[in-house]
Amino acid sequence: MDSPLSLPALLALSLVLLVALHLARRRRVAGKNRNYPPVAGTVLHQLLNYGRLMEYLTELSRRHRTFRVLTPTHNKIYTVDPANVEHILKASFANYDKVGTMHGVLEDLLGDGIFNVAAGAKWRHQRKVASHEFSTRVLRDFSSAVFRDAAAELAGVVVAAAAPGNKAAVDIQDLLMRSALDSIFKVGFGVTLGAVLGPSCEEGAAAFAMAFDDASERVLYRLLDPLWKVKRFLNVSSEAAMKRSVRTIDDFVYAVIDRKIEQMGRDQQEFAKKEDILSRFLLEREREPGCFDNKYLRDIILNFVIAGRDTTAGTLSWFLYVLCRNEPVQDRIAEEVRAATTDDRDVGVQELAATLTEDAISKMHYLHAALTETLRLYPAVPVDAKSCLSDDTLPDGYAVKKGDIVNYQPYAMGRMEFLWGPDAKEFRPERWLNDDGVFVPESPFKFTAFQAGPRVCLGKVFAYRQMKIFAAVLLYLFRFQMWDANATVGYRPTLTLKMDGPLYVRASPR
């Protein structure tokens, strides 16, 4: 992918930022009663550190728990203070919203879906319907069955790769992404993609997945590129590629919607029995004609995809990456899974998957802790931004101006010693367990992987269910090691914390 800015543009931007810095200092002097956060850099510094942006922000956060980054038009405020997070997400929820700059940046990809829309009628409608669906036993049972089948299918692919004499490395991240895509399309939209089997993948699914990844990366560039609107108007560079990706995404998603509508037209009585989320939305539209159109459904679909595929598959990838360097943790999880399911019996993939009932996975406290510890260090959404609607003061005493973008930082927060102790950078699942080995949650304003307050993730239980089923199957059957013991893995700068390349592992049968 091309750099977000050329060298001349960077020089021009640096000049603009120097002027902005000078004006900010003058405003600071003029505003005698306003205590603004310290300036830790400019958007130019972020661009220069783009390949290691999370580490850069973490370093700044160790020096300043709340700080400002200057842009030509507004302040970007970053914080790792849980009191500030609670203020933004709960106490002053109405004053911090997904509006203005952020909505425009993400609109091409996420439209007016639940993650990008302001807290108005559309947000309330989607949250109400989604809340109802996630709380129903029908969706719980349906999704569990889908996850068990998907995990068994994935394990079958790994079994073949782990067979004696097979010297090929397994790219487990790619397999997890494909399997999660299969799962979320089945649960969300009643569509069987077959993505994990590669060549038999439904026509367009592979292109959709690639386009979605590309678009997710390019919208993040927009947050740092003040010229992105000019590029979009001229249809050049990264914005021309963005347009192509969105076209591919739209073609696939609208085809899915059209097929569902056709099914509903053929037999509405039978369609009413459908358990997937898209069908439920279509049935609601039938009850209230005109309440939303296909574009709105498209936005809902893509928001569910980024929630149900990118986050869970990404977390499972980081989970296995960390566990490749922690074999005792792998063994302890395998023992816990065995105790909760088959006890001393050795069973095959299908029988194992069938034992992963709601009751069984609820007993897996250590697995839950290990997944949560992964999310602490590698949160699916590493930084989340809100726009300030009116002047405010944060609990730490720092002022925020109307129009400022306020960012709380799950990635940096997971590495703060003042929050987690001197071993904050270490992977230690035991920190989540009490003396009886029972999982004990932390405040959602300290552990922010699932947001908190009115926007708390409705799919949290759903996500843990999916991850625990996949992890239980894989670790019961296999022991994982890095294919290259010295290899390290970085991340791609996308909306979610995705690995920047393959995760090649060696899978050995237990």
Automatic annotation (TrEMBL):
Query: What Gene Ontology molecular function terms does this protein carry?
Result: metal ion binding; oxidoreductase activity
What organism does the UniProt record list as the source? Urochloa decumbens
The question of whether Nucleotidyltransferase is a record keyword is answered with no
Cofactor(s) the record lists: heme
Domain of life, per lineage = Eukaryota
The record lists heme as bound by 457
Recorded hits in Pfam families, A to Z, give: p450
- Which keywords are on file for this protein? Heme, Iron, Metal-binding, Oxidoreductase, Signal
Residues making up the signal peptide according to the UniProt record = 1-26
Record's protein name: Cytochrome P450 704C1
Q: Which family does it belong to?
A: Belongs to the cytochrome P450 family.
